[in-house]
Amino acid sequence: MKRKYINLKPSQLLIFIFAICIIIGTILLRLPIATTASITWLDALFTATSAMTVTGLIVVDTPVAFTIFGEIVIALLIQLGGLGIMSFAVLIYIMLGKRIGIKERLIIQQALNQTSIGGIIKLVRNLFIFSLTIEMIAMFFLAIKWVPDLGWGKGLYFSFFHAISAFNNAGFSLWSDSLMGYVGDPITNIVISGLFIIGGIGFTVLSDIWYKKKFQKLSLHSKLMIAGTFIINIVAMFIIFILEYNNLNSLGGLPTLSDKLWASYFQATSPRTAGFNTLDIGSLEEPTLFFMLLLMFIGAGSASTGGGIKLTTFIVIILAVFTFLQGKKEITIAERSISQIYILRSLAIATMGVFFIFSAIFLLSITEQAPFMTILFEVISAFGTVGLSIGLTGSLSMIGKIIIILIMFIGKLGPLTLAFSLASSKEEKIKYPHEGVLTG
Amino acid sequence: MKRKYINLKPSQLLIFIFAICIIIGTILLRLPIATTASITWLDALFTATSAMTVTGLIVVDTPVAFTIFGEIVIALLIQLGGLGIMSFAVLIYIMLGKRIGIKERLIIQQALNQTSIGGIIKLVRNLFIFSLTIEMIAMFFLAIKWVPDLGWGKGLYFSFFHAISAFNNAGFSLWSDSLMGYVGDPITNIVISGLFIIGGIGFTVLSDIWYKKKFQKLSLHSKLMIAGTFIINIVAMFIIFILEYNNLNSLGGLPTLSDKLWASYFQATSPRTAGFNTLDIGSLEEPTLFFMLLLMFIGAGSASTGGGIKLTTFIVIILAVFTFLQGKKEITIAERSISQIYILRSLAIATMGVFFIFSAIFLLSITEQAPFMTILFEVISAFGTVGLSIGLTGSLSMIGKIIIILIMFIGKLGPLTLAFSLASSKEEKIKYPHEGVLTG
Ligand SMILES: [K+]
Ligand SMILES: [K+]
């Protein structure tokens, strides 16, 4: 028995740990000391899952429903969930690097420079030190803005909570309207977005930058992540700016061009997968919401605090389509080629995502009375562990809440689990003759 | 110059021929003799494209707007489009079989038993004879029902038009309410659905059945298509029956259980990609409409008159996901294994589809004032060349019409073109070192 327990796959262990933490979190949030007025077990479970999976969808308004004790439980769950998934992902990639070919091990070594057990422990320690340091620095800068606004106690406490929530891409806020009160404030915009971009780009990329210093020397993964993040954020900012410019309930209602630009920047970067908002998401135009569905589905980086199918997964898919259209068989970029197994993995992860999203939408379209876009937005937000909503979360039926809980859980752990099982898969023992089928 | 023309790729030639036919069709439909009252060039182009791509979306009501001359032009375009794409697809697969490895040639040989030039000519002749024979038999049976209802002249003419429209999966009807008047009629249901299922399963499968007789001896492709068509139709019928049972505007409003079952059967089979309706599609429940989006996206068989990404493409994707989840590397089914290149092709075709659908929805959400589901349904219907609509087609803006025209064209020719360029792709000349990226 003991041996069996030890033989749990890393991905199974991860799922087990997450489930345990969510259950403990649920019990803690259900304590009378955690809430201002009693909440249901289901709402406690929803909140604990949302915090542990760093999603940020809320069935009860965080600052209204929870006491400071409850909020600190939420902050701890966020920290556990964010750092947990990040370090676990790094560990899994290292373990895969040991088991599989030299080629793949090189990626990890390049990115992390660590393969011994001692190295792994050091690596995880570094990850924790790095994360906490970043959060503390950010807390300091946020305090500069928020202590004058809110006083010492509340100002520091808000800075502490939002630094954790932002670095871990959780999107939980102690303001009922998220960060709408700071829509045009440079400090809030820069610090919060800086936190979730650093937390979301992936620890392997950060390590890579730390050790290599120069862009040319970085691994292909790091190059794609950095260039990809830059390009997608600029493009998204531009699109949102154009689409919302005349919307009086969003950009059109802001007094200065500076406010409009900050708001566009923030709502362009936040959907992948921070989930904070400085504009009222429910008031955005339909094309903007539709575009955000894509951003939420794509998400942040591998081995990061963010969710979604991951930016590199999306980039590989896009490159693959262009490559195939040119009649080529192999993706080449930045003087490297990406072999078919990575394309296959990326497509499998995206397909799985679409499958779960599709199923959840179908079920919710039966259980909930809401416009189709509202359901679509909610499900993809849960899958990408984003936390933005155009209003469904608050009015979800009981079954609806359970579905969204499951989708948050699957959205957080699914892509990593799948990436793991794809990477560690073995050849068949029974060999059948090959035969093709016509497609397209 | 002459040599260059001859060197057009088969897929380029196909696109060229389709474009020419659509232009000729547009001019013919714009003639005063074709319409009861003058229609715009754009509406003529829309109708010609819809007919040639066997889609069936209509901006003007066919029996109201067109004279018999106009209707016959539409029927001819449908016949050209349906038979054209089917024979071209067969030819392309044969040509690929000649160029590429023995393994792939075997698939084609197995399915068609034809590889010489003489064999090809015979094959296409067989395809035409077979199709016209089926249409004539179906016309006879339809006439049994419709001549008593409509008189000799109109009855035979309607049988002729609908036999062509159904076999070619076009969905055009001479009744303004499609086949709603025959919702519970066994002859209409069996003949029309028989036509579009035979036309939609793919000519390679029909040849295979003709030559092999026994299911066990069929190619893997034929087995998957036959079993897949059977399963998906049963499942879809069951789901639609359950979802619509209490809807007074659809099944709930029908007097007998027999009517309800026929209607469920018909609306389960028609969305992949016939496009006729015996129920009012606009009155269906949202979960049903959402489920139909999936059916429309999947579509019919390769080398058939139907559209969509194709049923085998979908089956390969589903099998791939399950295979990967089990930690296996290769799909095994029916004592055969499907190699990764087929998975890759299937995923590329589906991804391309999603890409075009996504782009069209985004643009239409800007240009059209309509609920999101209405836009979604219209775009996927156009992409799958289905022709069902919940009301957007009639009220499309000018830009909206152009977008739908493009999507019909891409939906019909895209998957085949992509399948061709994927299958004929060559290795790179410049070799770069391989490097992986993290995904998921
Ligand atoms: K989030
Ligand atoms: K059709």
UniProtKB/TrEMBL annotation, chains A, B:
| Localization, UniProt | Cell membrane
Q: Which Pfam families match?
A: TrkH (PF02386)
List, alphabetically, the InterPro entries matched.
Answer: Cat_transpt, TrkH
Membrane spanning residue stretches:
12-33, 39-60, 72-96, 123-144, 156-175, 187-211, 223-243, 289-322, 342-366, 372-390, 402-423
Keyword Membrane in annotation: yes
Q: Which UniProt keywords apply?
A: Cell membrane, Ion transport, Membrane, Potassium, Potassium transport, Transmembrane, Transmembrane helix, Transport
What superkingdom does the record give? Bacteria
Question: What membrane topology was assigned to this protein in its record?
Answer: Multi-pass membrane protein
User: What is the name of this protein?
Assistant: TrkH family potassium uptake protein
Which organism encodes this protein? Answer: Gracilibacillus caseinilyticus
User: Upper lineage ranks?
Assistant: Bacteria, Bacillati, Bacillota, Bacilli, Bacillales
